[in-house]
Amino acid sequence: MEFETLLMDLLRKGIAFIPNLIVALVVFVATLLLAEWAARSTHRAVKRQSADSETMLLLSRIARWTVLIIGTVVALQQVRFDVTGFVAGLGLLGFTIGFALQDISRNFVAGILLLVRQPFGVGDAVEVAGHAGSVLDINVRDTVLKTWDGEKVILPNMDVFANPIINYTELPLRRRTIRLGLGYGEDVNRAKRLFMETIRGVEGVATEPVPELLVEELGDSALTLVLRFWIDQSKHALFGVHSAVVQAIKEVAEREEIDLPYPTQTVRVEGFLPGEPS
After folding, report:
1. Are residues 15 and 74 in the same domain?
2. pLDDT beyond 60 at 99
3. Both 162 and 177 in a single domain?
4. Which CATH number do you get for residue 155?
5. Would you say residue 221 lies in a domain?
6. Does pLDDT of 62 surpass 70?
7. How far apart are CA 79 and CA 14, in angstroms?
8. Which residue range(s) make up the domain with 206?
9. What's the whole-number mean pLDDT along residues 19-43?
10. The pTM is what?
11. pLDDT in tens, 207-217
């Protein structure tokens, strides 16, 4: 009699458990499908950012396992499984791994944020963390630059993310400033006119914004002129145009006999010179 009662009790519990089991199975199957969709969607989204294959694979796996873990926890809850210990264990494991690999973790998170924000792309000319050059590669752990001197620099993404970033490619117009001394005996207006005509004729100097030549100060040996002009570095070499402007100014000064004096000092000696009678 007791056996029959126990059997009936188990049967009732089993029948009552079936709906929960079905729901749990449905949730788990849906989790598998959703995890696959999340992985593919992440792969496509990261691929549009021109990321490398390693980055795409890593982020796809993270998306898949994140969905799988959440879905598994939800499915276990449907069958009245106590997931408190399971979740606590995952949290402790994550904390331990994160603490042990905190530098790697920070660079990884910074890499993801850089991929999302996109402050620069591969091939862009940038300056970051004291290094300037073109971007060769962007990974989830580091960013690779080729400096103007031809050196390969690997920067941890945390350093890139935590420092100001100058993207020269995004705004290609760059202003250059040249200071030159003009002799006090020269006609300032004439010199400015000749210099401006010369500058406008140099290939690569932008017409907008308009170049300007101003008198900055009265120096010890000359008037100090300040020349400011702009270069579209997406079309012209920055340093090449700068060099051409300097050379053109020197040539027109020599041709028009405009005095660009060297810094000089006048020494005034009072009293008697050595050897002279007092």
Report:
1. yes
2. no
3. no
4. 2.30.30.60
5. yes
6. yes
7. 11
8. 173-255
9. 81
10. 0.55
11. 888 999 999 99
Identify any residues that bridge with 174 across adjacent strands, giving them in sequence order. Answer: 231
Give the tens place of pLDDT for each residue, 104-144.
667 777 777 777 778 888 888 899 888 989 998 887 778 89
Residues 13 and 95 in one domain: yes
196 Cβ contact partners less than 8 Å away, ≥ 6 residues apart = 211, 213
Average pLDDT in the 15-35 region? 77
Q: What is the mean pLDDT of the chain?
A: 80
pLDDT at 15: 63
Q: Same domain for 185 and 229?
A: yes
Q: Which token pair is 161?
A: 């993310």
Which pLDDT score, from 0 to 100, does residue 11 have?
A: 61
Does residue 269 form part of some domain? no
Strand pairing report for 165-167 and 142-147: unpaired
140, two tokens: 């989830």
Same domain, 128 and 146: yes
What is the per-residue pLDDT for 278? 54
Q: How many domains does the chain have?
A: 3
Q: What is the DSSP string of the chain?
A: -HHHHHHHHHHHHHHHHHHHHHHHHHHHHHHHHHHHHHHHHHHHHHHTTT--HHHHHHHHHHHHHHHHHHHHHHHHHHTT---HHHHHHHHHHHHHHHHHTHHHHHHHHHHHHHHHH-S--TT-EEEETTEEEEEEEE-SSEEEEEETTS-EEEEEHHHHHHS-EEETTTS-EEEEEEEEEE-TTS-HHHHHHHHHHHHHTSTTB-SSSPPEEEEEEE-SSSEEEEEEEEEETTTS-HHHHHHHHHHHHHHHHHHTT---PPP-------SPPTTS--
